[in-house]
Every structure is written in structure tokens, then in C-alpha cells.
Amino acid sequence: MSLGDFPILAPKLILGLETRIINNIHFLSDEEVVYPVGSVVVVHNFQLKKQRFIKLSERGKNLTHLAVSPNKKLIAVVESTDKLPIVTLWCPVQFRKKRTILLPQDKEIYANRYVTLDFSFDSKYLMCVTGEPDWMMYCFRCDKGRLESSCKAINTNGVGTVHKMACNPNDQNQVIIVGESVLRSLGCQNFSWRLFGYNKQDSVIYTSCTWLSQDRAIVGSDKGRILIMETGELKAVFTATDMPIINMTPSDENFHQESPNVFRNRESETSQTSIESTESIKIIEGDSENYEIRCLTCFNRGFVFGFTNGVVHLYEKETAHKYIKRGVFIIPNRLIPREYDEEPEILTGVNTIAINPSQDRVLVSCRDMQLWYSRIFIHDATTGPEVTFREFGYPMHLGPVGSLAVCRWKPIVITAGERDRSLKIWNYETDEVELIRHFEDDIYSVALHPSGLYAAIGFSDKLRFMAITIDDIATVKEFNIRTCRMVSFSRLGHFFAAANGNVIEVYSSITFVQMYVLKGHSGKITGMSWSYDDRTLATCGTEGTVYGWKVQKAARINETILKSTQFTGVAINREGKNMFCVGTDGHLRELLNANIHRDVVIAGHGIRLDDVILSMLDTMLFVSGNDGVIYVVKLPFFEKAECVEYIMQNTRITKICLSWDDRFMISVAVDGTICFWKLLNIEDKTLMVDPNAAKFSEVLIARTVLEDKLEQINTLHLRMREFEAEHTYQMRQKDTLYQQQIKDIHTTYCAAIEDLKIKNEQMETDHIQEINNINQEIQKMKIDHEMYVQKLEDHYNEKLIMEYEKFHAYEAKMEKLLRASEERYEQLKKDKAASEEAITNDFMEQLREKDYTYEELLEHSEQEQKKHEVIKQQIEDDADREIYELKEAHEKELKEEQDLNVRVRGEAAAMKKKYLAAQKETDDLKHRVFCMENEHVKFKGIIQNLEKEIMDAKKEIEERDQTIEDKEKRLFQLKRKNQELEKFKFILDFKIKELKSQIEPKEKTIQEQVHQINDMVRELENLQKVILGLDLQLTELREKLGASNNEVKKEIAKNRRMKHALQAIRIDIHNASSVIQNVSLLQKTVKDMYHKYNADKDFEITQAEDTEAKNEFLRQREFLERTVATLHSQATKNANALSYDKVRLVEENASLLVETNSLRKHLQAESSQTKKLNALIGLSYISPKLAQRKVNMAAATNLEIHNKYKERLEENEKAIQMLKEENERLVNKIAEINQALKSPEIELCEEDQECA
User: SUPFAM superfamilies of this UniProt entry (predicted)?
Assistant: First the structure.
């Protein structure tokens, strides 16, 4: 069956992080991050929310390291194997393998993993350090994948282990290696690595290192100490607990730079250069705090490192020798302590620190799968000394995802974390988290109502029916079911079934009444599945039973028991007749009427399968198992199931679910990874969905919450208006300030222009003077050149006549040689034809004789075959008789051997006791031999290392001798090149003189064009003045139009206010008409209306005067602002126009210069062409160069004719030689055929003798 018939699972998004890998996060760009998840390496663009994948071998279980080159063009994936480790280089753009780097097979290498690796600063080399027992450093070339050099990574006495390595940021030949009792600075010269600087073997564990600059490195230890190395020498030691400033200048008191003798004499005292001092940090035994300096990472503005659990320290570079502590970042501890945990696991230890290319964000990973980030250098006096990291990307579960559920009406899925006691609701279409809710109790199961508005959640104390609101999950009803590990809503949502121990209780999701109780399981219930009409429920358990229940009767209709397996998942079809179940034995079974209808093995016998699901139309079946594998099984399956594997996760998958339209699938695993899959090639396998049907997007929201939200909106609107008013005021103040600054800049700019004009005039006068001097020199050189050319012409004319005479002599000789060679060729042709005829006639006669002898031999062989068959029949009869006789004899011997066997068993028991005693002695001897062999291996290793060092020294001596010879050869070549260059220099000087003579006529045309350009500039300035006047008129008209528009708007607003007032009076009159019967109340209302609408005239007059004054002030202010704006725009236009004219003139000058250069070239070509034509016609003399060229052509044609005929003669001789060889081959072939015909005759004679 072709793969095109299977549905395709395309991974859309995978969430998680492989925390066991050191340095597991890297930036490709500011938006793209590389990190390992499950069985792949993910390149995640968090801005576009897209992922691309690099698939790993062996499901990613052999992955040990991940690295990205400094130029972001290579991703190094390091994997360990049973033999030798492998490094694969991937291209992050095309996502294909660029190179696989392997260790050489011819070397004795016992290590099967790399402990650390790093790229050189130019991304050309990859440095790798192998683990035990070799501890070797290898340098590979990335573009070719070959090994360039290698050396020992640990101390020469074989003590210590390696933890980290760092390459120099400016020199690819320097590295620093640190580890347990290892601190080595290595430099490479002529493919040989050597130690330099401080190499004292202290009993200190160094955990991290990096380079601050080309000659300065920083190293961290497990006791919280930081070492500063400069040019390989130890300069200072600091402690991480009290380090607000790192000052590395010799004059500073904090930098105790002392001589090596002082270090040796003051080991008992506490100083910053005493590495083994532990006085600064008191480490208590059993303390869970981690005092290692982890993940030292340097960038242009400083460096960061991890110290103690969940703490990252940041230092900013103030000068080349001074670093200041700028902040402390804290990783939040999401671990929830439990009573039954004896020692809580620490998950906040820093694993990796990465800085983005823009160097404004720091990204941190720890043993928790969540990524954390923070901005760099955000601290001030108000933020405080410590900053808490924020979640980067998607919020992840802490630990296993225990349960998963999807709904029908919405594209959402809910996941439950076992360790972090949280629920997360995801939208699998938009790849976003819609809601997160944390609880105080452990969560064991979760189910989502088809509407997506409700959920049934099993807690450690109760089962709760909860409502999903816009920002919360609120409890609606509680049920007394403790640690409910399995809960499921029916397809229509009116029932939900919950496992209470080994009993299933079915409740109504409307009245919350217990409807049915299903009893029968004796073990833990591991799977539930509802039929399409909710009448049938299928369940399975660890006791090896699968039940089919009639829900409305609470009766069992199907029962299948297999005690040999534990069932882990079950799925039922739409009609409720067929059930599919999986278990720990690796079998997929189809059950029909309580019988096993089909039984197939999916992954292999004994390989656990975890879950099984069916599509809505029963056309697709998906099975999970084998630690992270999802199998797509073809339906219907027969004796052998056809399936396709898809792998993204590498641990046990706890649950898989399909969306209601079968277009998406979600899988969750024990390690906390969540994978969203998109199903392809499912056109005829899913439900038909109406594309015009609207999706359900409603959510529940409490009335109090809604009121709070509305109040917040109103307050925010008010604050927005206040901010707008403040902003406008600030902008006005800035405008006035900027206008004053523009005036100042304009004055300075004008003064600078005047200075530049004066300088330009001075430079022009100097330039004219230089041109005049050059023209005079050119005239002198022209006269000298003409005299020299005349002499050369006379000399070369004499030579040309001599060469013509030689050419005629060579032509006569050539004709004679041609005639002789043609006569020879004809004679050879005739001889060849005669010899060929004679050979073919002889060969045909011999062939006829051999055919006659072959027919006679065939007849003889048929007669002999008949005789052989008769003899064969006789031999078979004799063999049957002998077999019968041997059978009887062997039966007698068998009886005798059985009796003997009984006797031998008794003797064997006695011998067994002796054997056990002897075996103990041999074990003791083997142990002694093993000890001796270990010592022998150690001594052998030491001998090999010494031999290698001797070989390396010899190689180095040979290489140095070779380099000396190469340098001497190079010097000789350079001397020869120098002589050639001097000759070439003389020729170039001559050409320069010719070119200078051609420049002079073009200078006059350039000056004429300059005068034309100046006239055009004057005309443009006049046009610019006219345009400016028109612009002023246009701006004045626009201002008048704006003022009239403002007056119209005021009148419209006044009219609107009057209408509103009239409407209010009408309403008040209407209200007063309702109390017309009550005179006193009517009087009161009329009086109120009078006071409301008829105020005091004096007050109105004063108020009107105030408003008029304000309006006049505003009008004048607007007019002044408008005039300032127009003047500002005119100034900018003038400046732009002037700059545009200057740019245009420069461009026109450039184009004119290009045209003049092209005309010069054209003129030169035309003059040379006319000279050639004149020389051919005879109107002028031939130049010496042309005459020399013609002589060379004539000599070349003579040599070509000579070589041509010489080659033809050689070809004829080769043809004659080949004919001779062919004749010899035919003679040998005839002799072989004669010999072959004789040999069968001899064999037949020998057979006749044997038969007789």
C-alpha cells in the first residue's frame, strides 16, 4: 500500500525543552531561538509563531550538545554512539545537512562522547573535547570536515576531567580548557598545540570560562570564586558574594597583583590570588544551595553568570579594566512543596544563558522546561536591586501533563499538570494560551464539555464541575469522589462519567444527579470511550478486562478478559459495536460482540502501547506507544496491520486527542511536552464542514467582573484625555524651543558656507597652476617620443626584409616534405590490404575444419550419457540396501548408550562438586589477572603517550625544515617577480605619457560646458524666486480660507447649542404641564425655569466680555502660530531648493565627465583604425609594432604547417602498429581454438578408460 493512502501527521507546534542538554538554547536572530525538544531540534520564531524542525537519530536520546556558530550559519548537533561520537552541521536557512564530522578510524580512540565543544570566532573551525578515558581535544575544519590538529585536553600526568572550553574571540589559535583540577591555556602553531601561561594543577573544580577580550579570560569555580587570566597568567581572584566592582587595574587596592613568589609564601592567608581559599564562602555540608559559577557568558557591554540557585548576576563594562555590577535577576521557583516529598528537587539551577544579537535581552534556561527572559540594563533607583525573570514564549507545565481534553464547539484544548497543579486552555488554531489557572490541590483528570464552557476536573479531595469564564475557572458543583483519575463527557454533553476507584458513576451535567452506577472492574480504570449516540460506553482496566456498557440500563453488554495483559486505552466506533483496545503487550485488538475479531502486533511483542483514538467517521485509527511514537493504522486491518510511524516526543505519551473536525491532533507526554499536529491527505476521511458556519466564540463572564471592567475602561478614558492635554502643552513648548535651535543652526550653517566658498576659490587657482605646469611637461615629452619612434621604424624595416627571405626558403622545404610523405602513405596502404586478405582466407579454412570435429563430438557425448544413466540406477539400489542395514546397527548402539548415560550422570554429580571448588580457585586467579592487566594497560597508555610526544616532536622538526625550504623558494620567486615588475613599470610609464597627450583637447570642451552650466544655474535662480512669491500668495489665501471655515464652525456650534437649549425648555414646559392642577407646585416650577433660562443681565454681560477676551486671545495666538509655521516651512523650502540645485549641478558635471571619457576612447579607436587602413592601402608607412606582429604571424603559420604534417605521420605509424597487433591477436586466437578442440578429445578418452 502506498503512503498516499494514509493520513499524514504534520507537526505544527511542539512545546517543551530538553533540560538534560547543557547549553540547550541559542539565538539565531532577535526573533529565532534554537533549542532541543523531544526527538527534534526546533528553530522557533516567536514573533511569527512558526517552528522548523531538525529530526534527530534514535529519537534524540543520544543528543549531548547543541551549538551555533558565531556567524549564525551553522548549527552543530552532537550525538554519542556505541563507538565514536558524531557531529552533524546543519544549515539553518535550507535545513539540510552540510557536513558530518567523524573522528578518524585509524587512531586508537576509546571515548564515545564529547564533553564540550565550541566554534572559532570566524566559524571556520570546530573544537571538540572527548570524554573518558581519552580526554583529547580535536580541531576540525567546518567546510571540509577534516581533522586539522589534536592534543591532550587534561594535565600531562593524566589527572583531572574537562567541563568547559572557550575559543578566543579574535584568534582562532587560542583556547582555554577548564575542569576538575584542569586549567589550561593552549595556543596552536603549525598545527601543534602548546601550553602557555599559568598551568598550576590546583585541586579545584573549575566549572565555567569565557573570554572578555583577546588577551583576557574569566574562569569560575564550584566554590564561588572568579579568576581573571591575562595573556595566560593568573592576575586576580574574586568572590561572587561580595563583588560590586571588578577593577583590574594594577593601582587599585581591590586588585592584589603580586608576584608568584608572594603567592607561594602566603598560601595560609586569604588573598584574591589564593585559589584554594574558602574563607569568603562558608559551605555547610548538606546545604542544597549551589555555589557554582555557571554559564559565564560575555558580550560587548559586559558579562553575566549564574551563581546560587536561580540567580543570575550582570556586570557592565565601564572601562577596559573596570566592570560594575548592574543587577541581579531571579528565576521564580514554580515547584510546589508536598508533604510526601522527602527532599524537594531544585529546578532553578541555571543551565544556559544566551544573549540575543542586539544585546538587549538575556534568555535563561534551567532544569524547569520554561524559558525565562529579561531586558538588560533596565535598573534605576526606583526598580530596586533585584529583578524577576519573565516567561519567554509559551507558559509550560512543570513536570508531566497528566490529562488532556478537547471540546466540540470551540477550537480549544485543556491540559492538566500533575506537579504544578495548573490548568491551561490552548487554542490549537491560533497556537495561543487563552487561560491559565492554578489550584491548591493535585489534579488527576480533566474533561471538557462539548460547548467549551464547562469542565469536570478530578482533584485529590473531590471531583468538581466548573464553569470556564473569561478569566477564571469557577466551581459550580462538587462531588465526593477522591483522586478521580478518569472522567469523560458524553458526545452530546448531557452526561459525564467519572471513575470512583473501580466503579464508574454517570452523572447528569444539567441536574448534577447521579444517574447510573457501573460496577465490574476490579483494577484501575485506564480508558473510557462513548459511542456517537451516547447509549454505549466502553471502558478498560489494568486487570485485563474490556467492558461494553448499556448506559441507560446500567448493564454490561460485552465483556472481554485477558489476564495476561494490562489494557491502557480503548476506543469505540459510531454504532457502538466494534471496540479497539491496546495494552502493555504491544497488541492492537478489535473486539466484536465480546470476541477478539482481529489481533495484530503494532510495535513488537512486549512494547507498551499507551492510547488509541478513532476519527468521527471511523476511517482513521491512531495509536500511541513505544515511548513517544504515534502510529497511523490503516482500517480495516487484517492479519498484519499496515501503519506509518510519526515521532516528535521521546517519552511515554499519556494522552492523544483529535479535534471534532479531525483536522488537528494533540499529544502530551510524561516529560511535559505538548505537540500540536495538523492532519493532511484526509479529504475523504472526515466530516463535511460547512465553511459558512459561524464558529462559537462566546464566553461566560460574571456581572461583577463586567462592571469592574467597565469602570476600568471609564477611568482609563479619563486618564487618556488628561495625558492628551499634557502632551499638547509639552509639544507647544518643544516647538518654541526647536524653532530657536533652528535659527542658531541656520546662522552657523551660513557662516560655514562662506568659509567653504573661500577655500574652494583658493583650490581652483592652485589647480589651474598645476594644469599649466603639466601641459608644458607633456609638450617636451611629445617631441622626445617622436624622435624615438622614428629610429625604431628604421630598425624594424630592415629586420622585416630579412624575415621575408627566410619565410620563402621554409615554404620550398615544406613542399618537398609533403610530396615524400604522400608517396610513403600510398605504399603502406597497398601493403596493408594484401596482408589482410591472406589472413582472412587462412582463418576461414581453419573454422570449417573445427565445425566438422564439433559435430562428431556431440554424437559421441549422447552415447556416453545413456551409459551413465544405467550405472546411476544400480548405485541407488545398493545405497538403499546399505541404509537399512546401518539403521538396525545404530538402534542397538543407541540402547547401549542410554544405559551408559545413566551411569555417567552419577559420576557427573560427583564431578560437579569438584568443578565448583575448582571454579572458586579460578575466580580468584582471574581477579588477580584482571588487576595485573589493568596495571599493564595503564603502563601501556603511558608508553603510548610518550611515543606520541616523541613522534610529534619529530614531525615538528620536519615541518620546520620544510617551512625553511619553502621560504627560500618563495624569496627566489619574489626576486624574479620584482625584475618582471620593473620591466612592466617602464612600459606603463610610456603609456601614461601617451594618454596625457590626448587629454589636452578635451579640457577646452569641458570649460565651455562649465560656462553653459553657470548660465543655466542663473536662469534656475530667477525661476526659484518667482515660485517663492507664488507660494507666499498661496499660503495667505489658505489662511483666509481657514479663518472663514473656523467662523462657520462656530456658528454651527452656536446653532446646535441653541437647539439643545430649546429642546430642554420644551421638555421643562411639558413637565410643568403635568402639574397644572397644583397651582403652588406650578408656580415653583415656573420660577425655577425662569431662574434656569433667564439669568441676570449684568452677569451675562460680564461673562460675554470674558469669553470675547478669551476668544480674541486665542485668535491672536493661532494667527501668530500660523505665521511662525509658514515662515518655518518657507525656510525649509529655500534650504531644500538650494541643496537640490547643488546636487543637480554635481550630477550633471559627473554625467558630462562620463561622456567626455567615452568620446576620448571612441576617438582613439577611430584614429588607430584609420592608421591601419592607410597602411594597408599604402598611403602611410607601417608602424614598427604592426610589422613585428606580421612577422610573428608568418613564423607561426610556418610552424603550424610543420607540426600538422608531423602529427599526420605519427598517426599513420600508430595505425600500422595497431594492424600488426591485430594480426598477432588473430594468430593467438586460432591457436587457442585448436588447443580447446584437442582437450575434449583427451577427456573423452580418459572417461572411456574409467568405464572399462
Answer: WD40 repeat-like
Assess contact for 626 and 583: CB atoms under 8 A: no
Residue entry with cell 430642554: 1064
Quote the CA–CA distance of 131 and 138 in Å, as a whole number: 12
- Whole-angstrom distance, CA of residue 907 vs CA of residue 1013: 127
| pTM (two decimals) | 0.59
Mean pLDDT value across the chain: 81
Residue 37, CA atoms < 13 Å, CB-side half-sphere: 26
* Secondary structure string (H, E, C) spanning 776-838: HHHHHHHHHHHHHHHHHHHHHHHHHHHHHHHHHHHHHHHHHHHHHHHHHHHHHHHHHHHHHHH
Residue 366: which of 386, 387, 376, 351 has the closest Cα?
A: 351
SS3 1079: helix
**Alpha carbons 73 and 167: distance in angstroms, whole number:** 18
Res. 580: pLDDT tops 90: yes
Cα atoms found within 13 Å of the Cα of residue 45, Cβ hemisphere only? 9
CA atoms within 13 A on the CB side of 640: 2
Q: What's the grid cell of residue 428?
A: 490549537
Q: CB count, 10 Å around CB of 1229?
A: 11
Cα–Cα distance for residue pair 1004/65, rounded to 1 Å: 73
Q: Are 443 and 466 contacting, i.e. CB atoms less than 8 angstroms apart?
A: no
Determine the angle formed by the axes of helices 703-1073 and 1079-1093, rounding to 10 degrees: 110
- Listed range (293-302, 308-317, 759-768) with the worst mean pLDDT: 759-768
Residue type, 914: K
Could you tell me the CA-to-CA distances from 1113 to 726, 1039, 1054, 1119, 1127 in Å, in that order? Answer: 21, 18, 20, 10, 21
What is the 3-class SS of 540-561, one letter each residue? EECCCEEEEEEHHHCEEEEEEE
Closest CA to 370 of 292, 279, 436, 465: 436
Residue 897: what pLDDT?
78
pLDDT, one tens digit per residue, over 53-82 is 999 988 888 899 999 999 999 999 999 888
Give the range among 226-240, 594-608, 616-630, 686-700 with minimum mean pLDDT: 686-700
Instruction: Check pLDDT > 60 for residue 807.
Output: yes
Q: Which of 221, 197, 186 is nearest to 296 (CA)?
A: 221
β-pair type (322-330, 386-388) = parallel
> What's the CA angle centered on 534, arms 533 and 539, to 5 degrees?
130
pLDDT tens profile 150-192:
999 888 888 889 999 999 999 888 999 999 989 989 998 888 8
Work out the number of other CB atoms within 10 angstroms of the CB of residue 87. 23
**Per-residue pLDDT at 457:** 95
Count of residues in the chain:
1252
**Predicted local confidence at residue 319, as pLDDT:** 87
Which runs of E-coded beta strand occur in 449-577? 454-459, 463-468, 473-479, 487-489, 495-500, 503-508, 514-519, 525-530, 536-541, 545-550, 555-561, 567-572
pLDDT at 1173 over 80: no
| CB-CB neighbours of 1120 under 10 Å | 10
**pLDDT value, residue 470:** 86
- Residue 355: predicted pLDDT: 93
3-class SS of residue 582? strand
Can you give the pLDDT at residue 685? 79
